[in-house]
Amino acid sequence: MDNNQYYGLFVGLITLDLIYLAQSPPQNNQKLVASDYTVAAGGPATNAAVTFSHLGGKAELLGVLGTHPMTQLIRTDLEKYKVTITDLEASLQNAPPVSSIIVTQSTGERAVISINAVKTQASSEVISKNILEHIDIILIDGHQMEVGYHIAQLAKAKNIPVVIDGGSWKPGFEKILPFVDFAICSSNFHPPNCPTEQDTFAYLEQMGIPNIAITHGEQPITYKSEQEVLTINVPSIQPTDTLGAGDIFHGAFCYYILQHSFAEALNYSAKVAARSCQSFGTRRWLK
Question: With bands split at pLDDT 50, 70 and 90, how would you rate the model's confidence at 4?
Fold first, then answer.
């Protein structure tokens, strides 16, 4: 299959990210002057879609955007990276969710404050019956849970693989998980009554998910496939900015899993995510 024929659908959060590079996050009543800043569209599904497109796929982003003037910044950014937007509430006039992020210059660690999609939950009734036509893979980030659930059901009926971005547990994931083929989670993903990683693996296995991976930042990835727990080392780097690394990992995984084994896709995705951490912001690594 020609790489240009890979179509990915990314379901979830669309934000406007204001990203600052500074010596540290501010303390109470402190004013800081940033050494650098950038503005980009953000959200787990959004950054994953940009990555998928950058690697050679065709990315469609399904989320809530609306018509507020600020959305033009988001649209311009995503047009630049050839991501198609399917707006679940095209007539919405409210401002999009805005995230303010401060990246610590010496460590690349980030501090984030945002609204996410709590106030912009869409109904699955607006989804086109043909939404999955030509789609090869789907990523669901959990920020549009009703829509994600509906899409996951449709995907199962059409044998289209579903990936979840398990950055953190969100109520409603329990409905989607039985339809999931690949659960790619962070170490912060804790389903109910699952305080340990072993508990999380067991929970996801009970949901019938055949391929499970848990990332740990710069530490090795733990993954389970065919009943065996294994690890994959990630590249050792000096990070400039870890913002969006998980999102970028997920976008790369969606691209590589269409061509490689589970372990190989995880390995390639870790390399892409590591490369992104060596540039400030979520876009400069693309250049």
Answer: low
Q: What is the CATH number of the domain that holds 200?
A: 3.40.1190.20
Tell whether 72 is covered by a domain: yes
Burial class of residue 31 in the structure, from the number of CB atoms within 10 Å of its CB (0-12 exposed, 13-18 middle, 19+ buried): exposed
**Is 31 domain-assigned?**
no
What CA–CA distance (Å, rounded) separates 164 from 153?
Answer: 13
Question: Which tokens belong to 220?
Answer: 């090795």
Q: For residues 11-15, give the mean pLDDT.
A: 97
Distance of CA 72 to the CA centre of its chain: 21
In the structure encoding, which two tokens stand for residue 238, read together? Answer: 């000096």
Please, is 158 exposed, middle or buried when counting C-beta atoms within 10 Å of its C-beta (0-12, 13-18, 19+)?
A: exposed
Q: Characterise 123 by phi-psi region: left (phi > 0), alpha (psi -120 to 50), beta (else).
A: beta
Size of the chain in residues: 287
The pair of structure tokens assigned to 224 is 């389970």
User: Residue 143, SS3?
Assistant: coil
> 13: how many CB neighbours lie within 10 A of its CB?
28
**CA nearest 167: which of 151, 146, 147, 143?**
143
Cα–Cα distance list, 130 to 127, 151, 220 (Å): 8, 11, 39
Q: Rounded to two decimals, what is the model's pTM?
A: 0.95
Q: How many domains does the chain have?
A: 1
